[in-house]
What does this fold into?
Amino acid sequence: MTDTMPSAAPCIRLGEANRGFCGRINAIHVGEETHGEAAPEIESRLLELGFVEGVEIKVLHEGPIGRDPIAVRVNDTTVALRRREAMAIVVTSSN
Amino acid sequence: MSTQTEIGVPHFALVGTPNSGKTALFNALTGSRQKVANYPGVTVERKAGVLQTPSGHKVHLVDLPGTYSLRGRSPDEEITRDVVLGRLTSEITPDLLLCVADATNLRVALRLVIELKRVGRRLMLVLNMIDLARRRGIEIDLDRLSAELGVPVVTSTAVRRGGTEELLRRMDEMAAAPLESLGENTWKPLTASELRAAQREADRVIAAAVGMPARPDTVSARVDAVLLHPVAGLLILLCVLFVMFQAVFAWAKPVMDLISSGFDALGEAAHDALPAGLLQSFIQNGVIAGVGSVIVFLPQILILFLFILMLEDLGYMGRAAFLMDRIMGGAGLHGRAFIPLLSSFACAIPGIMATRVIDNRRDRLTTILVAPLMTCSARIPVYTLIISAFIPARYVWGWVNLQGLVMFALYAAGIMSALGVSFVAKHFFLYENHTPPFMLELPAYKLPSVRSVVIGLYTRAKMFLQRAGTTIFSMMVLIWFLASFPRPPEGAEGPAINYSLAAMIGDAVQPILAPVGFNWQISVALIPGMAAREVAVAALGTVYAIEGGKEAAAQIGEALASKWSLATALAMLAWYIFAPQCASTLAVIRRETGSWRWMAITFTYMLALAYVAAFITYNIAVALGAG
It folds into this structure.
């Protein structure tokens, strides 16, 4: 996934980002591992919550167990989601 | 459903994303003139009300479940979609959609407006919480916004008196205007690329009509740095839960005692006023005790919902789910299930009602299923009676009180079995292997509005008394009937219950209960125990012909100690961990799930577990020489 990105900055998955990570959404790409939920459904839900390409994000908080779930600032809203679903969001670091 | 169908009364519907302040706005507009019920056949709450516009027009308003789109991915969202599209036969198709948006957070809301426009219905955008947006320095050019969207725009502040004047004035115009012919409905579920396009369009409109402050608001993020902190956040959550549990458990107690002694006194008065006989028994033990058994739960329900409504309005509930997600998730429960489950330690009835905070139907059903396994306060009298009669009050390992240890073990057994049942339900037979994703918006913190909380409490109380009340009450009358008929023959000896249908049923099931060590007296006492678990104590007193009711607990204990074996007593304790026989809980499950099926499933699995647990306990105890 990563090497196909046009951007020069390194791309990672939001599900791997640490607290304090700042960046911009590069792509929404739901992989095979969706735990029973259809991939288009996960994609639609992420889009509905505002995770759209080009949007600025910041990882604000991490859950107490296994640093999961995470709370992410998306433009001006805060969204909580599990790292598992956040793996679908490809982000470029801006710091 | 009681949809009012007056000619010429326009029907408006509130649509909006979760956390848009839609419900607060609905409360501000309709006040106490609202009705909460369920949509037919589903567990989705239907909130509707009537309001009067300034020039005297009556308007019907329905508050549709919050949604991010019309895709309908949950039963709640399907209701919103079907009402908006006019597909729901039980519901009048709304003449006007009021799309409520949080003015401080327009991105997602405007995308919903763009989607709603395709439905071709009259639409108005309501920018709620406009005062907050202005205070934060967000400048919204209303005319420009309206022009860009092609939709009329109005502002409101639901939580402030007079904050809905402008909205009411516009609704007035809309109500007076002749119905325009509807545009064409071109709505189809949006594909991912259409969603992206709609969001880009929304972002373009925002860029054109909204001026954002140079510095974004960081208050909520700073509060979250503490409240979502991995250690401090969990400790604070525990404190909140502790206070809530204390409140439901302890603060409600005096009021509940007052209510039950009030109804006891009323029953006594009726007893004295009426001639001895059937009517007297019916009024005292059937009607007054039946009504009392419903109303006695009200303090707990009010206190619990006071906490829930305030935490919800404050914006804390999503945070609590965030902190608890992994912990609850291990057992297959949703992060939001912990408040209902915790409340169930006081009583499963408010707990089951509180499962309304869980949006996902499967998660909600699992929680309802296991809530009655939490050791409720009604089991305590039974536990203390048997423990004090059979378990010696000595210390083990030098410092642990054996009676306390048994009590703790009973609580732990309840929790463990709840976790086990939810695990089994989730992973083996209830649902396919499917973990719904956990994704939710954490709204900015807001002070709850007193008016909105009070209205919320009022509607909960009304709903409980009206709907659960009728079922619980009729079950109480049935139980009274079973325990009272037929009457003992002339000159009969022993308590009257020994001649009743309850005794016949007890006798009939006694052979089935014999393998778990229950004698016929226990079998008979379990039937009035259906009314409430603790009634079994009084019923045991009755069958052992001990006068004096609740004060005679010590005497009952002595009688049991002399008549039961230790194995029987332990089997009874094991039975009561599960104790399926609580008519009120079953009635509430029936009401909340809208189906007899879930009530039957709960009863059956609890009965099976109770039987197996008592059977194993009894036989091990007998084998160890306690028979």
About this structure: Chain A touches chain B through 39 residues (CB under 8 Å).
